[in-house]
Structures are given as structure tokens and as C-alpha cells.
Amino acid sequence: MPRPDASQKDFNEPRGTAAETAKTHEEAASIASYIADMSDEMAKLASRCDMPMLCYFLNLARAEADMRARELGGYSIDRSA
Question: Looking at the domain assignment, is residue 14 inside a domain?
């Protein structure tokens, strides 16, 4: 017997309102932006400490988080400063 997957919603459950969905997306975009910011800061630290692989993976995480934040309607942050 297959295990029930908690991530799958019951199709008979009522869906959230548009306002609830928008709030959920806004929160997720905010979290993704925060992760992107923290990944960027840690990548800079790793670069200064001569840790190229760690810097690479942190930049990869930053790029993924930035992309997700944009998909969810968040705004990317200019980190050139």
C-alpha cells in the first residue's frame, strides 16, 4: 500500500481565495529574497577566505533564490554596491 504524501492536497478540499494565494506568494517571494541576500553575503565571505567551491555553491543558491523570488512577483535586489 503506498504511503500517503502530505504534500498532495485532496482535490475535494476548497481552494484558497485569490487574496490568500497572493499573500502566500508574497511571503514566499520575501523568504526567497532573504535567502538570496544571505547567500550573497556568505559567498562574498567564502571568496575572501579562498573557498572557491563554497563560493560557487552559494552563488548557485543565490541565483536560484533570486529566480524564485522574481517568479513569485518579488523584486530582485541590485547587489552591485
Answer: no
Q: Which helix (H) or strand (E) segment is 3 a member of?
A: none
pLDDT given for residue 1 in this prediction: 47
Separation CA 53–CA 47 (nearest Å): 9
pLDDT digits (tens, 9 = 90+) for 14-72: 566 887 887 888 899 999 999 999 999 999 999 999 999 999 999 999 999 999 999 98
Terminal Cα distance for the chain, rounded? 55
Place of cell 555553491: 57
Q: What is the DSSP letter of 10?
A: P
d(CA 37, CA 78): 10
As for how many domains the chain has, the answer is 1
Could you list the residue range(s) of the whole structural domain that residue 50 is in? Answer: 19-71
